[in-house]
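Students often ask what a holo structure prediction actually looks like on paper. The answer is less mysterious than it sounds. You provide the chain, you provide the ligand, and the output is a string of discrete structure tokens encoding the 3D arrangement of the protein together with zinc ion.
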Amino acid sequence: MNLELVSRELVDDDSIPVSEITDRIASWLQDQPDRGVGEAVDCLLATQDERVAEFAAQYLALLPGLHTQKTRVTERLRIDEDLVPVAGRLVPWLPTQLLEGMVRNYVEGDDPDAPLVDVVYEVGLYHPGLLRPHLSRIEDPDIRLAMMSGAPDAYVPAFVERWRQEGKIGALDLLARMRTEAAARALLDLRDELSDSAQWETFVEMAGRLPDSAERSGYRPAFLGSIADRGESPHVMGGVQPGEVPLCPLCGRATARVLTLSAADLPFSLGGGDPVFFWFTCRCYVVDSVAVKITPDGLQVFEGPRGAAEADAQVVPGERSLVLEPHPNQLGISLDATGGNARHQVGGLPRWITPAPHPRCPECASVMRFVASIDSGPTPFGRLNLDGTLYGFWCDPCHVSSVLHQA
Ligand SMILES: [Zn+2]
Ligand SMILES: [Zn+2]
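The corresponding structure tokens follow.
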């Protein structure tokens, strides 16, 4: 058996849902030598079936690094019109020169719907600067919105003017999505001009600043996160948190530890200990956030019951870890997320499903800084017990972490 045969058997069976095919292929690949990297690469170098290629590329995109292998398969995929959309998944790991070549092919082809559009879309998210020289030739509204990330300071006065003259809130939304210092300063200056303070806070935070202090709303630098096996990274995911954990206020089911960041292994100055993030394993959804304080005596839970951790109450399949590598877009992706794509992040600014204000610390009432997001979707070890995306925030002076959920 090889990956081509295994995949084709699954994709040809209409009774198997796509998410199950992803999980079964990941499970098969995990059992192969080098965790299936060689199988996935060989398949992507040879297959003629875009459905098979899609699953192989999706698996490779769950694994950190492997820049050489991801580049090699993309060089093959780009010469085949049917297969090239699949390369979109690998964009975060591809070299600039290869991406520039594909972007040039797309704009010179003069067809906005050409198969390369899927790759160009991902370039807009991860390397918007590579698209900027071609702005006038890119029509897709989503790709143009993605290009707001890191847009030139010269745009700022025009957006402010459009807001002041025409009252268009959309102009401030675009300003917030620039995520530059110039945009943040302009939004801070507009405080008294917006009657909706939550809206103003959201914009200022999206641009990278906290509304109630001179600090940044996230940490630098930004990392991509990939869920790897236990011990591969000091940032622990899943497993069972010793001691008491928050419980669901409705059904009493234990929450699960999603992530503990190892402060000593991060380049940020987190003085308040190792941030730990919990989430519900039931689907009661009576509250949309979980906040805990890390104290020398264990966890203090805000606004809710606490009790013993349960081994079978899990969000992450088993005990794993989160491997970090530099995020290609250090300013932050401008286009909102959909959730479910296994796109995890530590540091940087949140990519919201629906832009929202950061939570306030339940202890000191200061606005909290964003520190990590964990997306739902596949992992190499099975699916996360989660929908949408979790956003983790941290108040360093109080040692308090808070998780918000969006779907
Ligand atoms: Zn519940
Ligand atoms: Zn606080």
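The two ends are 38 Å apart (CA to CA).
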